[in-house]
C-alpha cells in the first residue's frame, strides 16, 4: 500500500488531502509512524522524531494513529488477495507476498493479475497500492518500490541479474543502514560491486549473511511464499516524555511494557522462552539484556519478574533513559513451562 496509515487518514478526512500529514504525535518525544507523500517531499519519514519532522515541515499536520481502522482496511485488502491465491504471506498490515502461479482466476499474466488486484483495492477501499512482479520474493520486493506511488514494475528472468547490478545495495532487503555503511567502506555500493566479491570475502566480513548477499547479488532467492509463517516474537516499547534516571520510574515503564506483551501472548496463546529488555539512552545508544528459560514463560508474574531482573542489570543508569521495551521470543509449546533461567545475553548498538 502507498503511505498506508497516512493515506487512510487523508481518505477519511478530505481536509487533509493534498497536505503534508504525519501519523503520530507532535509531543516533544513523539515519533512519526507514517508520512504522506506530500510530507515526504520535505524529508519527513517514519521513525523520525516529531520535533525534527516539524522543523523540516512547519506545515506538517499530525494525526493520532487509529490502528483498529488500519487493521480493518488491511482485512479488506487481504480478502481481495484471497480471490486470487491461497499463497499469501503478510509482511505487515500494508504489505504481502502473493504467489499466483496456480492462477485461480485464469488471468493471462502475473502483470495483469497485479493490475486487477490494484484496481479492486482502489475501488473497494479508495486507496492506492503499488506492485512488484517477478520470479522470486527478493526481486518482487525491490520492484514494488520502483514505481511508487500507484504503479507497478516487473522484473523478468531475462533482466533480473543485470537489473540488480544497477541498484544501490542500500535498497536490498536485509541490508540495513549499518550494513550499507560497512559495505561502502569495503567498496561495495552497487549490486555490481557486491557481485564482484567472492563468497570467501563476504564470509570474512559478513559471517552467516554471506550466502544471502552472494545470492541476491545475482538475483537469486529460493524462499517460497509461506502463508503459515509463524510469528517469532512479541514486543512492546515506549519513549518517555523526558529522560528518566530514577530506577523506580524506569522499572515501572518496563513493567507496563511487560504487561502489554503479556496481553498479546495470553490472547494469542503464544508463549516464548526468551525475555529481552531493550534500553535506549539519552545519547541514543541502545542495549539489550536477555534471559532464556528452560521452558516457556507461561504466567504474567514470571514475565514481570524476568523483566524486572533484566532492567535491574542496568540500574541505576549511567545516563538518562529515553526508551524501554520488552520482547518475548523463542516461541514453543505452552505445555513446556520453565522456572529456572540460567542463560543471559547482552547486546549493544550505537
UniProtKB/TrEMBL annotation:
Keywords attached to this entry: Cytoplasm, DNA damage, DNA repair, DNA replication, DNA-binding, DNA-directed DNA polymerase, Magnesium, Metal-binding, Mutator protein, Nucleotidyltransferase, Transferase
Site positions (Substrate discrimination): 5
Binding site for Mg(2+): 94
EC nos: 2.7.7.7
Localisation per UniProt entry: Cytoplasm
UniProt keyword ATP-binding, yes or no: no
Gene3D superfamilies on file: 3.30.70.270, 3.40.1170.60, 5' to 3' exonuclease, C-terminal subdomain, DNA polymerase, Y-family, little finger domain
Region (Disordered): 220-241
This protein's record includes keyword Membrane: no
Stored InterPro entries: DNA/RNA_pol_sf (IPR043502), DNA_pol_Y-fam_lit_finger_sf (IPR036775), DNA_pol_Y-fam_little_finger (IPR017961), DNA_polymerase-Y (IPR050116), DNApol_IV (IPR022880), PolY_HhH_motif (IPR024728), Rev_trsase/Diguanyl_cyclase (IPR043128), UmuC (IPR001126)
Pfam families (UniProt xref): IMS (PF00817), IMS_C (PF11799), IMS_HHH (PF11798)
Recorded GO MF terms: damaged DNA binding; DNA-directed DNA polymerase activity; magnesium ion binding
Comment on bound cofactor: Binds 2 magnesium ions per subunit.
GO cellular component term, pick one: cytosol
Cofactor list: Mg(2+)
Catalytic activity: DNA(n) + a 2'-deoxyribonucleoside 5'-triphosphate = DNA(n+1) + diphosphate
Residue ranges of every copy of the UmuC domain listed in the record: 1-176
Active site: 95
GO process terms (BP): DNA repair; DNA-templated DNA replication; error-prone translesion synthesis; SOS response
Family note: Belongs to the DNA polymerase type-Y family.
UniProt subunit comment: Monomer.
Cited function: Poorly processive, error-prone DNA polymerase involved in untargeted mutagenesis. Copies undamaged DNA at stalled replication forks, which arise in vivo from mismatched or misaligned primer ends. These misaligned primers can be extended by PolIV. Exhibits no 3'-5' exonuclease (proofreading) activity. May be involved in translesional synthesis, in conjunction with the beta clamp from PolIII.
PANTHER family noted in UniProt: DNA POLYMERASE KAPPA, DNA REPAIR POLYMERASE UMUC / TRANSFERASE FAMILY MEMBER
Name of the protein described by the UniProt record: DNA polymerase IV
Amino acid at each position: 500500500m502507498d503511505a498506508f496509515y497516512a493515506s487512510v487518514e487523508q481518505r477519511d478526512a478530505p481536509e487533509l488531502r493534498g497536505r503534508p500529514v504525519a501519523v503520530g504525535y507532535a509531543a516533544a518525544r513523539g515519533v512519526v509512524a507514517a508520512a504522506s507523500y506530500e510530507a515526504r517531499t520535505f524529508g519527513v519519514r517514519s521513525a523520525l522524531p516529531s520535533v525534527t519532522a516539524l522543523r523540516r515541515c512547519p506545515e506538517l499536520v499530525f494525526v493520532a494513529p487509529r490502528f483498529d481502522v488500519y487493521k480493518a482496511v488491511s482485512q479488506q485488502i487481504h480478502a481481495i488477495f484471497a480471490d486470487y491465491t491461497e499463497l499469501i504471506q503478510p509482511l505487515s498490515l500494508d504489505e504481502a507476498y502473493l504467489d499466483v502461479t496456480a492462477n485461480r482466476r485464469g488471468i493471462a499474466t502475473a502483470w495483469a493479475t497485479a493490475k486487477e488486484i490494484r484496481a479492486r483495492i482502489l475501488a473497494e477501499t479508495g486507496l492506492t497500492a503499488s506492485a512488484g512482479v517477478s520470479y522470486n520474493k527478493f526481486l518482487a520486493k525491490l520492484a514494488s518500490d520502483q514505481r511508487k506511488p500507484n504503479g507497478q514494475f516487473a522484473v523478468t528472468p531475462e533482466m533480473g541479474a543485470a537489473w540488480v547490478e544497477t541498484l544501490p545495495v542500500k535498497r536490498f532487503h536485509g541490508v540495513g543502514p549499518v550494513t550499507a555503511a560497512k559495505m561502502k567502506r569495503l567498496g561495495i555500493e552497487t549490486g555490481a560491486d557486491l557481485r564482484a566479491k567472492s563468497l570467501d570475502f563476504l564470509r570474512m566480513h559478513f559471517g552467516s549473511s554471506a550466502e544471502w548477499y552472494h545470492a541476491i547479488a545475482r538475483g537469486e532467492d529460493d524462499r517460497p511464499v509461506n502463508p503459515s509463517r509463524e510469528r517469532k516474537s512479541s514486543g512492546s516499547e515506549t519513549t518517555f516524555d523526558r529522560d528518566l534516571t530514577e530506577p523506580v520510574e524506569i522499572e515501572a515503564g518496563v513493567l507496563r511494557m511487560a504487561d502489554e506483551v503479556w496481553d498479546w501472548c495470553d490472547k494469542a496463546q503464544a508463549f516464548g522462552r526468551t525475555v529481552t529488555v531493550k534500553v535506549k539512552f539519552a545519547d541514543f545508544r541502545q542495549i539489550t539484556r536477555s534471559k532464556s528459560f528452560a521452558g516457556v514463560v507461561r504466567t504474567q508474574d514470571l514475565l514481570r519478574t524476568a523483566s524486572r531482573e533484566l532492567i535491574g542489570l542496568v540500574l541505576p543508569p549511567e545516563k538518562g533513559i529515553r526508551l524501554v521495551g520488552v520482547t518475548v521470543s523463542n516461541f514453543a509449546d505452552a505445555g513446556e513451562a520453565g522456572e529456572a533461567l540460567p542463560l543471559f545475553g547482552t547486546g549493544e548498538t550505537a
